[in-house]
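Figure caption, in words: inputs first, then the predicted bound structure.
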Amino acid sequence: MPNSSAKNTQDNPIPQHVAIIMDGNGRWAKERGLPRIDGHRQGAKQIHQIIEAANEFGIKFLTLYAFSSENWNRPKEEVEALMSLLSSAIRENKKNFIENEIRFRTIGDVSALPKSCVNDIVSLESATKRFDKRTLVLALNYGSRDELVRAVSKITHLALDGKINPNKIAWKNIAENLDTAGIPDPDLLIRTSGEMRLSNYLMLQAAYSELYFTKTYWPDFGRDDFAKAVAEYQRRERRYGLTGDQLK
Ligand code: FPP
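Bound structure (farnesyl diphosphate present):
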């Protein structure tokens, strides 16, 4: 359990799905007089601790924003370093995913990533697709607006093929054509580093997510910080548009 007072009870459930914006790697490095990529390297190491903590707390889905559709505009060396970190992290952790029975999935248009990254991703996805208790989702070349454009295109084709009635499109049809099809909406969305915005991350899926912001930079965000965020989530009252009295 995240802390001694936080239990997974009906009134204070553990979030089923936690989404994280891992921000602050660059500032973490700068404050130490290091190149930005050292911040990303430390950030990549931190992911391991957070996956272990998610398992410990009983969180079923963990979605991490690893590379946004806008991150291509960063300096070329930084983009290349991030891609290389991604490939090594996937290769080095393959055994861990299998031993711990964690399914690996991605959201975003991974086809635009370097071929070697795509191969590593496909290989880990297929090696873990039989696992159904815990899932790690990496958002790669992901942006909500891009995702929505892809979903609209798929739905338009379904309508043109007569497989969907354009007059009867419901949220369900949209949800099942988003990259996150089959993944429940995040209950808790965490952003590290003190920035307070969503940056095109899971904009539709986070409609009712509880938001948690911390000043801690991602490379310093450890198990106890995560536990604190989960405990804070457990104290929140989720209303989904109802009044507090209606919920009682
Ligand atoms: C934001 O920090 C972080 C990113 C854009 C990338 C996140 C990547 C990692 C944690 C490491 C690599 C990922 C994997 C999956 C191995 P920032 O660079 O925007 O920090 P700043 O705002 O302080 O400059």
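The pocket of farnesyl diphosphate is lined by residues 22-27, 40, 43-44, 47, 66, 71, 82, 85-86, 89, 138, 193, 218 (CB under 6 Å).
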